[in-house]
Amino acid sequence: MFLNDFPEMLSHIEAAVKVKDAKELRMTAHALKGMVGNFQAKTTAQAALALEEMGRNQDFNGVEKAFEKVRDEVEALKQTLMAIAKEENH
Q1: For residue 64, what are the domain limits?
Q2: The whole model's pTM is what?
Q3: Residues in Cβ contact with 51 at an 8 Å cutoff, skipping those fewer than 6 apart
Q4: Per the structure, how many domains does the chain have?
Q5: Largest alpha-carbon pair distance within the chain?
Q6: 62: how many CB neighbours lie within 10 A of its CB?
Q7: Residue 74 maps to which CATH number?
Q8: Residue 70 C-alpha from the chain's centroid
């Protein structure tokens, strides 16, 4: 489910960052944080929390860099999950 849903979530976050939509940023980052929390991916969840708080506070200072961190963390989590899935299929 994560592998199917996260690309759309990242697209929503990226769009919210571009147009400075604090509500969408907060809501989608919150949902992403919950999703990655299921995998005990603390660094990824912390990065999503930072974006969630930026949306909550309507603070877009440094939001592009924060989004890059989330994107990088989610990509690393994706690679880890795919490697685990590959091992289980052997």
Answers
A1: 2-88
A2: 0.91
A3: 13, 25, 29, 63, 66, 67, 70
A4: 1
A5: 47
A6: 10
A7: 1.20.120.160
A8: 5
